[in-house]
Amino acid sequence: MRERDDMTFPPEEYQRRLSGLRERMEERLLDAVIITDPENIMYLTDYQTTGYSFFQALVVPLVDDCYMVTRKMEESNVYARTWVDKTRPYADNGDAIQSLVESSGMRGSPIRPWATSGTATSSPPTSRTASAPPSPTAS
């Protein structure tokens, strides 16, 4: 986790939040979570952005480094305003969802939709059917 002097909370707080998320992921047998809500991204990374006008996602693998999928124009903001070291930018004329799938290694892997909020209609998975997707390399 990269440290910055201007973060809202100390780096340890973000590490605690991330560790808590990963504990819940382990309990629910999730290899990764994809977070797209700007408020939840801010909670985990301190990334303050309008975010609703374009697609962005924080990918949190169970066993590897987090990374952001965002517009190429926003890549410098990720480095300047978060502790996140890796980004997977997409062009404004590109396909953001395709970029997300390709960068995560999920292509061809089963993706099980399931919400951790308890509002989902399906049950959590009962076993892991695939290993965690490979991590992208640092930009």
Automatic annotation (TrEMBL):
Domain of life, per the record? Bacteria
Compositional bias (Low complexity) spans? 115-132
Q: Which InterPro entries match?
A: Creatin/AminoP/Spt16_N, Creatinase_N, Peptidase_M24B
Q: Which Pfam families match?
A: Creatinase_N
Under Gene3D superfamilies, the record lists:
Creatinase/prolidase N-terminal domain (3.40.350.10)
Record's PANTHER family? AMINOPEPTIDASE, XAA-PRO AMINOPEPTIDASE P-RELATED
What name is this protein filed under? Creatinase N-terminal domain-containing protein
Q: Where is this region: Disordered?
A: 101-139
Residues covered by the Creatinase N-terminal domain: 17-103
